[in-house]
Amino acid sequence: MENDGGKMRRILLFAFIFFLNGLIIGCGKKVGEKKKEEGTIPVKVREVKRGDIEEIISLTGDIHGITEVKVFAKVPGRLIKKIKREGDRVKKDEVIALIDRDEPAMKFSKAIVKSPINGILTMYFVDLGDAVFPPPSEPLCMVADMDSVKVVVNLSEKDIGKVKKGKIARVYVDSYPRKVFYGRVTNVAPALNPMTRKLKVEITVKNSEHLLKPGMFARVEIIVDTFKNVLIVPRKAILEEEDGDYVFIVENGISKKVKVLKGACDGKNVEIKKGLKEKDLVVVEGNYELIEGVKVKIEE
Description:
Blueprint: H1 4-38, E1 41-47, E2 49-71, E3 77-82, E4 89-90, E5 95-100, E6 111-114, E7 119-124, E8 131-132, E9 141-155, E10 168-172, E11 181-188, E12 199-206, E13 217-234, E14 239-241, E15 244-251, E16 254-265, E17 269-274, E18 281-285, E19 296-298
Parallel strand pairs: 1-19
Antiparallel strand pairs: 1-18, 2-9, 2-13, 3-5, 3-8, 4-7, 5-6, 7-9, 9-12, 10-11, 10-13, 11-12, 13-17, 14-15, 15-16, 16-17
C-alpha cells in the first residue's frame, strides 16, 4: 500500500508534466504568431501625383558687399582717432579717421582718412596707436555698400550649362532661419578656376534692411527651370543603384520593384519621366530593406 509520501511525489510529477505541456503549447503559439507577423513587412507609401516642380542647384557661398573698398593711409604714421566706428554709415569723402605723422624734430598736422564711397564702415584692420603706411601695406579699414549684397558661389562643371545671368535664386542664412531672400544671377565667370575646377557665380540680393552682412555663410538654391503638370514622387522613394534608379510600389498588398527615369529634382521631390503612372503607391519608408514579391502592410 502506497504511503502518503509516495502519493505526494506522484501528484507533484503530474503537476510538473501538465505545466510543461502548457508551456510548450504556449510557446508554440507565440512562435507561430511571430512568424505570421514577420511575413508582413510594414511600409509607408505615397500616391504618385501630378504637379509642378522646380529644377534647382543647391550650393553654399559667402556674402560680400556689392562694392567693398579697402581704405589705406596716404602717409605713414599712427592711427590716433577713429572718428567713425564699425557699423557706422559713411558718405563719400567723409572723414573716418586721423593719423598722427609726427616725427622727431618735425611737426606735422594730423592726416585725415576719407571714405572713398557711400556705405557702411564694416571693419578696422588696425587698432589705435598702430603704425599705418600707404599701400601695399595693410589697409586701415574697409567700407562696403550694403544696400545690395552679392553671394559668391562656385558651380560644378556638370551644372555650367544650366546657369545663366538672370536666373532667380533663393538665399538662406542661419541668422534668419525662417526668412527667404531672393536674388538673381548677375555674373558668371568666363573660365573655371584651374585649381578647383569650379566656376565662380555671383548672385545679387537686395538688402535694404542690412540683414545680410559681409562674411556671412549662405545656402543658395538657383532655380534653373520649372516643369508643370508632371508626375512627382518624394525623393526618399528613389533607390539609386549601379544600373539605374528604382522605386518600390505596392500592388494588391505585394511589393514590386520598378525601374524609373528621373527628371527634375527640387531637393524634396523628383519628377518621374518613365516607369510610373498616376495614383501608383510608392514606398517612401521601409523601402531600403525591401525585396520584390513580399507581402507588405501599409501604415499611416
